[in-house]
Write a structure and sequence with these properties.
Radius of gyration: 17 Å
Helix content: 25-40%
Structural class: alpha+beta
Oligomer: single chain
Strand content: 5-15%
Distance between the termini: 36 Å
Strand order of the largest sheet: 1-2-3
Shape: globular
CATH topology of one domain: Rossmann fold
Length: 137
Amino acid sequence: MYTRMADPTTPDGKALLIAESPLTQAKAIVTPLMVVQGKNDPRVNVRESNQIVAAVRDNGKPVEYLIAPDEGHGFARPINNLAMVTAMEKFFAKYLSGRLQEDVSSDVEAKLKEITIDPKTVSGAITPNGTPAAPMK
């Protein structure tokens, strides 16, 4: 696999970026999706995560969303990692019928509650060309 580079200031470059954008392919996502985002991520802006969450939600597919306000690209704080892994375990148990450790420490449970975002509240769905997307009916 390779990554192609594109110049967004040229018509061909812009077309390539649109064609290869995950947002362009959001309708192809048919399995449940969990998005984990650090609010201070310098590589993946939270608006981009909001867009994919909203697009998957609007396509009627299951999506779960975590945003840690004190993280960047990758979770570095142990409490955030524990909350994320707890969420992942619940996600896998729900969608893959895996086992689940129900009891977690109160600090992890509190952190998980703090960083869990209800996908219904996420705005930001746009089409790859930058226009607002109409919710699916």
